[in-house]
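Summary for the steering committee. One of the milestones for this cycle was to obtain a three-dimensional model of the protein with pyridoxal-5'-phosphate bound, which we needed before selecting residues for the alanine scan. The sequence and ligand used are listed below.
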Amino acid sequence: MQHHQARAGSTGRPEQRVSESVALTELGWVVMDDAHGLASCLAMVAVRQLTPAYPLGSHLDGRGRLQLGGCDALELAAEFGTPAYIVSEDDLRARARAFANAFAAHTDRFRVHFASKAFACTAVARLFREEGIGIDVASGGELAMALKAGFSGPEIELHGNAKTEAELTQAMRAEVGVVVVDNLDEARLLQRLLVEQDRCQRVQLRIAPGVSPDTHPSISTGGPNTKFGLNLEDAARALELLAGERRIDVEGLHFHIGSQILELAPFRAALERVTAALGTDFAVWNLGGGLGVAYGPDEEPPSIEDYAAAKVQMVEELCGPGKTIVDEPGRALTANSTVTLYTVQSVKENVATWVGVDGGMSDNLRPMLYGARYEVEVADRFGGQSACIVTGKHCESGDVLVRDALLDDPRPGDVLVTPATGAYGFSMANTYNGQPRPPVVFVSEGDARLVVRRETHEDLFTRDV
Ligand SMILES: Cc1ncc(COP(=O)(O)O)c(C=O)c1O
């Protein structure tokens, strides 16, 4: 592990909470030591407000340079190279605690599971394990990662709409707590394996409640025509069948209606439909994840506290008292913890101004998959006004990271920052065009440590035979 000291000069900022904007506007006198430590200068500096897209504790220092977890963004770029995912460890911990505390404020019957697909990185999973929350996995690979991170089988839930026999066998060997059964073919396969191995398994049945929240179709998962789970009629039949299987213990129902959901009403609508069709006679209600996050100033997601309170209240009201609630946040735990740093390689005028950086669709596929929008800034010159298109380096015209960027006179060598890349960035990273995947660097209290090294060209060939 690589360590690095880059403690930033403190401007004495007030402490910030998970639900608050990351940096308050500060206007004041800032003391800056010169390079030789001999003299100080006093400067009147107006520090811009960062949006809530940035990790907790981020701010611009007196020189207008972005500070992350007490480390200077430009120094991080110089030390670890770009592109790089910079993750605020404290931000991840704060959000894990916020979820646990928010549910605990209303019930002692709850389980919070990190949806590991959002940031399938061993160090991230290990951190959440330290914070005492569980984990859900959606493949054999994520299961292996969860075990490597130190989770025990019972702390793990297995998802997937097309689980293979190998994955179910692996899950049983690991003695996972819950298998979320997606369909009847899987139930039959699971039953056969349980007989062969002479064991029992707790399961939840995944339901497609027929509710589509207001989010991109690619991340809407609970509508009537979805690849996930069983519709309400088939679910009723499946529950009858499963009731006769003594090795399968259906502890409850599961539905996850989608991701980046910015209002709470669809969760309730889904639960109303499910309880109306299937009753309330289940001990466990797993309402999935889905809480949206701020990718910029325009999104205003419900707070973690309001989200948890609403979920507990709706389960109590619609399902009755004494039920256990399971929640599976992914995006809301990880997105805002992370920024990606890039270096500008080229700036050219082809009708528009095109700013080419050293990453792109290999480290952040979301803009290309479903038009996700990101903020972008020059890491030491926030608040520019030059309209430009920030594009990746890949051989696809669609490899555009930010279409409507406003940057301060970008030049080759500038470090750019896109905040809120912690969810589904690292997990969906790929090696298109032979691009090695970026490192993951944890920052906290002025210390930076590498938790995933940059991929090398040799790594690209490790599977050649
Ligand atoms: C079953 C399930 N649970 C939880 C999640 C996490 O969702 P989010 O990242 O929106 O919280 C997902 C995401 O796809 C999912 O499929």
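Key point for the committee: The first helix runs from residue 73 to 80.
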